[in-house]
Design brief:
This protein is an alpha+beta fold. It has two domains: about 200 residues, UDP-n-acetylglucosamine1-carboxyvinyl-transferase, Chain, CATH 3.65.10; about 240 residues, UDP-n-acetylglucosamine1-carboxyvinyl-transferase, Chain, CATH 3.65.10.10. The chain has twelve helices and 25 strands. The strands form six sheets. Strands 10, 11, 12, 13 and 14 form a five-stranded mixed beta sheet that branches. A four-stranded mixed beta sheet has the order 23-24-1-25. Strand 6, helix 3 and strand 7 form a beta-alpha-beta unit. Helix 1 packs parallel to helix 2, helix 1 packs parallel to helix 3 and helix 9 packs parallel to helix 11. The N and C termini lie close together (about 5 Å).
Length: about 450
């Protein structure tokens, strides 16, 4: 599907969709809990669907339902009936199954260690760029703890993973994907020995791991964390002494995943960021359903926009960005790489230069996202340059419009649509259906706010 968006004045309130990242974590824990869970979730996405599909294949029952609370209000969501258990109380998964992860990196990287910990055997497949996205740091550590990993190619799917997986001491680099860390943590309550996980510096995207720890706590699994900055027994030897610089996560033995019964999914700051970016470049848009104390890293969009001269208001979970006199700034996005797209749309129209660094891992997303952002800004008449793994954008008064290849990357499609609001000509987005990965209703919401959207 190709979509053409023209400059228009947006006005209204957008309800932020449920956080995809949180929903995926809660779904997985619900599938291995002690009793059924109701997950309030109004809208899904392709990535959430991928997680649901894989959990069903492993033996969980997941059904769409609508429930009414004591006040008579209805809530749509999913009822997750967990896997059956053996006499010892361990979940029993179906084995020798095929798990289609679609294009969801989180589904793949979370479920590989979980499947091994059950223990079970599964064949993992995927689409788009997923088959070539990195897995080696995760699979190497699983192999060291008893898992069996089979791949015809060291850098491609399909992959077969099989347990049993032992607990104990794990060490993993923190600068490839935080999803490796989250996957091991999600598997930890299935490891009778418990887990002592050391994440080596530099540790990037830490907020996503905090989301995982918070999800585990909601299901009764306690996660302790601290820093290791000094001597440690079996770390790299330097000059005769042993030193380690890492973050340590400890999950004690014999912990159980205990369902909270009913559970909500808070609004997604990653998606809200695009509407706040629209406000920064002139739209009259408010975003509701936001947790102002969320541990989601992309909540930093408010501080980032303020640094660019945007006036940000917050009131009772509703946020609004009002831009006037936009100016460039420098951003380290090591912990919130998904903000590069909404911030790039603002930077393209801000006075002066904006620099993004800490963005190396963006080359491993649904597209080479650094290159895709650069190409999109330039295709629309803006000025963007890549300096190695850093992105620089020189702001212009107005974009000219043009044709953008979304490169099968949902965030590129949404960024291009926001840029169109301040373009003198039309912006045609090729392959715009990729928004289904995280925000299927994006263009519907844009049209409801007054945007000019034509589908072809």
């Amino acid at each position: 599907m190709d979509v053409t968006v023209k400059a228009s004045s947006l006005s209204g309130t957008v309800r932020a969709p449920a956080s995809k990242s949180i929903a995926q974590r809660l779904l997985i824990l619900s599938a291995f809990a002690n009793v059924p869970t109701f997950l309030a979730l109004e809208h899904a996405s392709a990535d959430i669907d991928a997680t649901v599909r894989c959990l069903r294949t492993l033996g969980a029952r997941i059904q769409p339902v609508e429930r009414r609370d004591s006040t008579g209000l209805s809530a749509r969501g999913l009822r997750i009936t967990p896997l059956p258990r053996d006499p010892s109380g361990r979940p029993v998964a179906l084995s020798d199954v095929n798990l289609d992860c679609g294009e969801s990196g989180a589904t793949l990287r979370f479920l590989i260690p979980v499947v091994c910990a059950l223990p079970a055997r599964a064949r993992f497949s995927g689409e788009g760029r997923l088959p070539t996205r990195p897995l080696a740091p995760l699979t190497d550590e699983l192999l060291r703890h008893g898992a069996i990993i089979e791949r015809k190619s060291a850098k491609e799917l399909p992959l077969v993973a099989e347990g049993p997986l032992a607990g104990g001491r794990y060490t993993i680099d923190g600068n490839v994907s935080s999803q490796f860390v989250s996957g091991i943590l999600l598997a930890s309550p299935l490891l009778p020995e418990g887990l002592d996980l050391h994440v080596q510096d530099p540790f990037e995207s830490k907020p996503y791991v905090r989301l995982t720890a918070e999800a585990l706590e909601r299901f009764g699994v306690h996660v302790l964390s601290d820093r290791l900055d000094g001597e440690h027994g079996d770390s790299q030897s330097i000059g005769g002494a042993h030193f380690e610089h890492a973050t340590r996560f400890i999950v004690g033995p014999h912990q159980h995943i205990t369902s909270p019964g009913d559970i909500d999914v808070e609004g997604d700051w990653s998606q809200a960021a695009f509407w706040l970016a629209a406000g920064a470049i002139g739209a009259d848009v408010r975003v509701s359903n936001l947790n102002l104390s969320s541990v989601q890293g992309d909540r930093a969009i408010l501080a980032a926009l303020a640094l660019m001269g945007v006036r940000v208001s917050r009131e009772g979970g509703i946020c609004q960005a009002l831009g006037k006199g936009l100016r460039g700034a420098a951003f380290d996005l090591s912990d919130m790489p998904d903000l590069v797209c909404p911030l790039a749309a603002v930077a393209a129209l801000a006075e002066g230069r904006t620099r993004f660094f800490g963005t190396r891992r963006l080359r491993l997303k649904e597209s080479d996202r650094l290159e895709s952002v650069r190409a999109t800004i330039c295709a629309l008449g803006g000025k963007a340059t890549l300096l190695g793994d850093e992105l620089e954008i020189e702001g212009v008064d107005e974009l000219s419009g043009g044709v953008v290849d979304a490169a099968k990357d949902h965030r590129i499609a949404m960024m291009a649509a926001i840029c169109a609001l301040r373009s003198s000509g039309r912006v045609t987005i090729l392959g715009a259906e990729c928004v289904n990965k995280s925000y299927p209703t994006f263009f519907k919401v844009l049209r409801a706010l007054g945007g000019s959207v034509e589908e072809a």
